Amino acid sequence: MADFSLRRAVEMDFPAIRQLIHESRLNPTGLNWRRFIIAETGEGVFAGCGQIKPHAGGVLELASIAIAANYRKKGVARLLIDRLLSEEPVRPIYLTCRSELREFYVKFGFFTLELQEVPPYYRRLSRLVNLFTSLSKSRMLVMGLGVPGKVT
Ligand SMILES: CC(C)(COP(=O)(O)OP(=O)(O)OC[C@H]1O[C@@H](n2cnc3c(N)ncnc32)[C@H](O)[C@@H]1OP(=O)(O)O)[C@@H](O)C(=O)NCCC(=O)NCCS
């Protein structure tokens, strides 16, 4: 199995970040490269990325988690998410994901939140997205780590 390492992004990483986010069909807004951590192979090949994205009112989001298709299922997202969460001491941290990824984020300590438990930004987003996807099996979930009353 290849070795992977992590580093802070530099400006030259931005095209690769943008392309991977596009290919992964994730939210293409708010991709400020300065916030990103990059995963790369031992040969320096770009393998994935992620960020903690700030929103109005001090809300923090684990976002833009994407691993290039060739490097999935090798523990790269785990490395990346562990690093992002350990570098950011503030809680709660929120995220949005498709319902199929619930179990993936549970592994990092995130809980699924009810609409009344989430900041207004996510409530609006969730209502909008789930309105447009109401006929599909996949739903958008809002999950949180360190949300008061949800901490084990
Ligand atoms: C989801 C994604 C980030 C996972 O990345 P990855 O590098 O393959 O994940 P890892 O190999 O680090 O897996 C970590 C753990 O999660 C599990 N896992 C990986 N993908 C999973 C999935 N789709 N559903 C449930 N569990 C999953 C692994 O089995 C592993 O479990 P373990 O530690 O108990 O063995 C990757 O598939 C991806 O980039 N998908 C497209 C973009 C996307 O959907 N991003 C998430 C946006 S919310």
| Domain tally | 2
CATH architecture of the largest domain: 3-Layer(aba) Sandwich
Q: Structural class of the secondary structure composition?
A: alpha+beta
Helices and strands, in N-to-C order?
EHEEEHEHEHE
Strands, count = 7
Radius of gyration based on Cα positions = 15 Å
Bound molecules: coenzyme A
Q: Give the oligomeric state.
A: single chain
State the distance separating the first and last CA atoms. Answer: 34 Å
Please describe the structure with a list of short key phrases separated by commas or semicolons:
alpha+beta, binds coenzyme A, four-stranded antiparallel sheet
Please provide a written account of the structure.
This protein folds into two domains: 1-90, 3-Layer(aba) Sandwich (Aminopeptidase); 91-152, no CATH class. Helix content is 26%, strand content 28%. It contains four helices and seven strands. The chain has helices at 14-23, 76-87, 102-106, 120-132; strands spanning 4-8, 36-41, 46-54, 60-67, 93-98, 111-112, 140-145. The protein has a four-stranded antiparallel beta sheet, sandwiched between helices. A three-stranded antiparallel beta sheet has the order 5-7-6. Strand 2 and strand 3 (46-54) form a beta hairpin. The radius of gyration is 15 Å and the shape is globular. The N and C termini lie far apart (34 Å). The mean pLDDT is 94.
Annotate the secondary structure layout.
Layout lengths: L3 E5 L5 H10 L12 E6 L4 E9 L5 E8 L8 H12 L5 E6 L3 H5 L4 E2 L7 H13 L7 E6 L7
Antiparallel strand pairs: 1-2, 2-3, 3-4, 5-7, 6-7
